[in-house]
Amino acid sequence: MVGGAIQAIGWAFLPLLVWPIIHLTFGENRFVRGFSESLISLIDMITFRIGEWTKWLLPFLVLSVAGSVFALSIFGVTTTKLLESAKYFQALVIMLGAAATLLAGQHVRVDIFHTRMSDVAKARVDLIGFFLLLMPACILLTWKSQGFVSFAWAIREGSSEADGIRGIYLLKTLIPVFAVTMVIQGLSIATRAAMCLSGQDRPARPAGVPPFFRTAGEETL
C-alpha cells in the first residue's frame, strides 16, 4: 500500500520535472513565467518551513546522546530505547533537513570552480546537474525503496532488540521522503536557473536564505 502510494505520487509529479526546459523554451509567455514564479515560491517556502521545524529536533538529539552518556558513565545503566532514540533523531534531522540545506546552498560541491563562475555559468551547472545527477538519482532511490519500505510497513518492522523502539519502518520511510523532497527542491533551483538564463528576475528567497544568482545591476536572487 505504501509502495503503491509512493509510486502514484511519483508518476503524478514526474511530468512537472521537465518544467525548467519548458521555461527555457517558452519563458517569454506570461503564463509560463507566472507559473515558474509561483512554483519556485511555493517549493522554497515549503522546504524552508520543513527546515525550520526540523532544526528543533537538534536539542532532542543532543539530549538523547548526553542522557545515554551520563546514565552509563555515572549510574552504570542505560536503556536500549534511549540509545536508539539518538539514531532516530539523527536520521530525522539529516533526511528531513537535506532539502533545506540544498535550498541554502550548503551542500558540499564537487565542482571547486563553481564559486568563481559567473551567474550564468552557475545557472548552467545547476540546470544540467539537476537533469543529469540529482533527478535520476532521486527517481532511482524512490523507485528502489518502494519494495522494502512496503515490506517494513507490512510487518511494522521494529528494533532487533526486544526492548527497542518499534519504529524501523518509519525510519525506512524517510528514504523516499528524502528523495522526493530533494528532487522537488532541485526542481525549484533548476527553474530559477532557467529564469536566470532567460535574463529574467527571480522570485524573492525566504528570509535568511542566501541567494543563488546575480546579474549585473540586478538584485541577487
Tell me what the structure shows.
The chain is an all-alpha fold and 221 residues long. The chain has one domain (2-197). The chain is 69% helix and 0% strand. The chain contains seven helices and no strands. The protein has helices at 2-13, 19-26, 30-54, 58-74, 80-103, 119-154, 168-197. The relative contact order is 0.18.
Q: What brief labels describe this structure?
A:
mainly alpha; 69% helix; elongated
Quick rundown:
This protein is mainly alpha-helical and 221 residues long. The chain is built from 7 helices and no strands. It is elongated, with a radius of gyration of 21 Å.
Q: What string, H for helix and E for strand, traces the elements in order?
A: HHHHHHH
Write down the overall mean pLDDT: 84
Largest sheet composition: none
Number of E-state strands = 0
Q: Estimate what percentage of residues fall within beta strands.
A: under 5%
Measured as a percent range, the helix fraction is 55-70%
Helix tally equals: 7
Terminal CA distance reads 41 Å
Radius of gyration equals: 21 Å
- What is the number of independent domains? 1
Poorly predicted regions? 213-220
Task: Tell me the overall shape.
Answer: elongated
Q: Helix/strand-derived class?
A: mainly alpha
